[in-house]
Specification:
3 strands; alpha+beta; single chain; globular
């Protein structure tokens, strides 16, 4: 199946330039500014957010398939009650993986992980490829760079 989305890289599909222009809030103090940090997470208007991208190009990974390009933004606090204890988190992750196996034709992505674990990176989960290849980097890198340079500009002015 050919799709107008199949030729696009996940890095180019996210509107990070536009988001950087309109987000005037400071970066959340509890979220590191370095994208390649296990505690980094996309944030907008000071709110840490988990992002899921679905497209018609997802054929094998039905859990990420939609009739059009779609981004879902889930604030971090949504997960706090569900994943609040180690036991609850283990049960939730096990249930998700159990449901993915019969639903997706692709094996569960090796990039699915738990927020904050030493080997996990949130941005790798935002766009999951059908073939389990890693995304080419964080789709929100430009937004993070804009926030970091804005913070550095403030520090230099002080």
């Amino acid at each position: 199946m050919t799709s107008k989305y199949s030729a696009l890289s996940s890095r180019n599909m996210f509107p990070s330039d536009q988001l950087a222009r309109i987000d005037k809030s400071p970066w959340p103090a509890q979220i590191p500014e370095q994208i390649d940090h296990p505690m980094w997470e996309f944030s907008f208007a000071g709110e840490p957010i988990f992002v899921v991208c679905t497209t018609p190009a997802h054929v094998m990974r039905q859990s990420r398939r939609s009739s059009s390009f779609m981004l879902t933004f889930q604030p971090r606090w949504v997960f706090e009650k569900i994943l609040g204890t180690e036991k609850a988190a283990n049960a939730a992750f096990a249930e998700v993986r159990k449901r993915l196996i019969p639903y997706d034709s692709a094996t569960p992505s090796p990039h699915l992980g738990r927020y904050g674990t030493a080997d996990g990176r949130e941005y790798q989960q935002y766009f999951l490829h059908d073939d389990n290849q890693a995304a080419g980097g964080c789709p929100f890198a430009k937004l993070a760079q804009a926030k970091t340079s804005h913070i550095e500009d403030k520090e230099q002015a002080a």
